Amino acid sequence: MATKRHGAALHATALNAPAMLIGAAALLAASRAAGEELRWPGDAGAWSAVAYLALVGSVVSFLVYFTLLKTWSVTSLSFISVFTPAVALLLGFVFLDERPTLLAGIGAILILAGVILATKPQRPIPNSQNAA
Predict the structure, then answer these.
(1) Confidence of residue 2 (pLDDT cuts 50, 70, 90)
(2) Structural domain of residue 25, as residue ranges?
(3) Is residue 12 a part of any domain in this protein?
(4) In this structure, is the dihedral angle defined by the CA atoms of residues 34, 40, 43 and 47, taken in order, positive or negative?
(5) Which residues are CB-contacts of 79 (< 8 A; sequence separation ≥ 6)?
(6) Percentage of the chain surpassing pLDDT 70?
(7) Side-chain-facing half-sphere of 31: CA atoms under 13 Å
(8) SS percent in the chain: helix, strand, coil, step 5
(9) pLDDT of residue 22
(10) Could you give the number of structural domains in the chain?
(11) Rg of the chain's alpha carbons, rounded to an integer?
(12) Other C-beta atoms within 10 Å of 66: how many?
């Protein structure tokens, strides 16, 4: 909400870059404090995974988020995080041939139903004094 109110004039990159840098520094400090050794990925598959997570999973997704924040309401935009499990379920089914369980399917339906109900325009409740 603060970003919507006070960051409207800023480009999405300007909103995203400081958070990414602070997050990277905090994670580096935490890993060093835990005694973990700094190691680079060893093969092309690991580099591909890191590149995908860094670019698509972080940079692109936050740029899209902050861009949408300029035109969508905060409430509508907050529902994006609710869809994450359902999207992961769908992607696993489509690309990895995973078979969702009955409970996972029910959960996805409940997510969709909840978002539909929450974003449905409200009808005004008639005043009982005006009904007479």
Answers:
(1) low
(2) 1-37+50-71
(3) yes
(4) positive
(5) 115, 118, 119
(6) 86
(7) 10
(8) 70, 0, 30
(9) 92
(10) 2
(11) 21
(12) 21
Task: Please check whether residues 67 and 83 belong to one and the same domain.
Answer: no
Query: Taking the model in full, what pTM does it have?
Result: 0.55
pLDDT the model gives residue 7: 63
91 and 63 in a common domain: no
Q: What length does the chain have?
A: 132
> In this structure, are 55 and 89 located in the same domain?
no
Say how far apart CA 118 and CA 75 lie, in whole Å: 9
Q: Among 12-16, 69-73, 109-113, whose mean pLDDT is lowest? A: 12-16
Backbone angles phi, psi at 15, to 5 degrees: -80, -30
- Residue 129 belongs to some domain of the structure: no
A 10 A CB-CB count for 16 gives 20
Residue pointed to by tokens 């089914």: 93
pLDDT at site 31: 94
Are 90 and 108 within one domain? yes
Same domain, 57 and 115: no
Q: What is the pLDDT of residue 8?
A: 64
Max avg pLDDT among 59-68, 103-112, 123-132? 103-112
The token pair at 108 is 């996805």
